[in-house]
Amino acid sequence: MSVLFTSISETNPVKADDAQALLGPLGLTIDPAEAQDFHTLLAAVHDCAEGVAALPDYQPIPDQTKYPRENVRRPGPDEQVFGQAWAHRFLIRGNAQGGPLAGKSVSLKDVIAVAGVPQLLGSDIIPSWTPTTDATVVTRLLEAGADIVGTSTCENLCHSTSSYTSAQGTVENPHAVGYSAGGSTSGGAALVAAGLVDITIGGDQGGSIRVPASLCGCVGLKPTHGRVPFTGIASGDALNDHAGPLTQTTLETARCLDIISGYDGIDDRALGSSKPGSTNFELATQNTPDSLEGFKIGILKEGFEHSMVSPAVRETVLNAVQKYKDLGATVEEVSLPDHLQGPAIWTTQQRIAGAQTLLGQNTGRRGLCMTDMERARLPWTDDGFQRAFPSTKNVIVNGLYLMQKFPDLYGKTVNFGRNLSDQYQELFAKYDVVVMPTTPVVAPRHGKRELPLDSLKPSMGLTINTAIFNVTGHPALSIPVGFAPANDDDQVMLPVGMQIVGGLWQEEKILQAGHAWESHHDWKKVHYSTGKN
């Protein structure tokens, strides 16, 4: 404390009544006899903060000589596809010496830092900001030989599983104009599903990899929490943050996971992950046996019987699961009633932590803090709040209310989330994987930016089977298993996703299950009208 006292400057801006003004909104008061001391202490901490603010930041420095950024630009109408699938176009050529991903093209969800490339975050609340560092996944992809060809549109601050909320424009489903591509990794899923890029790296806080993979008809993996470092990726809630790949095949997903996984010495989410380069998911997936005899698959009763699951999706996924019997696997129904608590636990947790993050109040993690982004987006202004999409406004309103009225609730969600995780781990002691529909319906029609309830309606319920695994941290893979008709037009056929979930750190099993199904069935020939190849 003596250092603080001696550092108080003559130009210190702290006023005599500032301490009381800070406490006033909380209904707290300062004893007049203590007021001068608290003024002195507040002034001292201000000078301390000024000193820290003047220190140089400590950001990883990317090798832009080895990996120069070529022709960074916002794509014009002639370059855009599926509405507004691209955020920025550029080229960073991968390792000239080659590598496991040589010749592969990659897009990055527009929340993943690339030095020198403006980041939009799907928002226009603030001007785009330009990172000075590369996310860990970017460095690893380049070292593995991949070419990064752009950033893909994400939904507004990642607060939607629809694909019309981005301030940059709507992303169309590659199978039908007018229908959602899913979110929040909307642009990347459309690009992969259409074969315009080989790989997209997305972020998933409640389903933002798996939902668009399901709606667009590609493979999307949310790995075990911490398997892939989140360094250099905009966070929602560190407990729910996951990064992972979207590709056209499970084998490609496994190959990419080998490259991007492993603790990077920075992100504390990844402390339990393997040493980089030590996994071999690709080989294990490639060597999936033709016979799955001894492999036990659970059909999660609650994941199929939820009232929101459409009959067409339910039947398509059930038919897909039954095909495992032909490969020798044991397939039987299982039940975990508390699965139905997942959406409420996730919603409460995400509203509180999400509001804290948006307001710059989320603390307590060791990792890379993107200070440039924080300075760009804070403090909030009323003008910025008015331009925010209703889902973002709702996060702030809900979060502030819950923190005020239920002060112990975030801790309760963490505790109950551990309960859910433990229950699932008990289930995975008996079954290798558990399956269910990824999303309860096929892609819905786009909504419109109207009053809040109307704006949020198209995405309501899409994460009933996905968000719970952000809470528990279990790895979950979505693969396409057929087509079913759109809810509003039975002539429009749209993809159906099946979610395969495994035990913590058991990605190998879900990748093998996905690859086994893919190897024996062509999902594009499976239609709800027949349910047969």
Automatic annotation (TrEMBL):
GO terms for molecular function: catalytic activity. Residues 95-511 form the Amidase domain. SUPFAM superfamilies: Amidase signature (AS) enzymes (SSF75304). InterPro entries: Amidase, Amidase_dom, AS_sf. This is Amidase domain-containing protein. It comes from Penicillium salamii. The lineage of its organism: Eukaryota, Fungi, Dikarya, Ascomycota, Pezizomycotina.
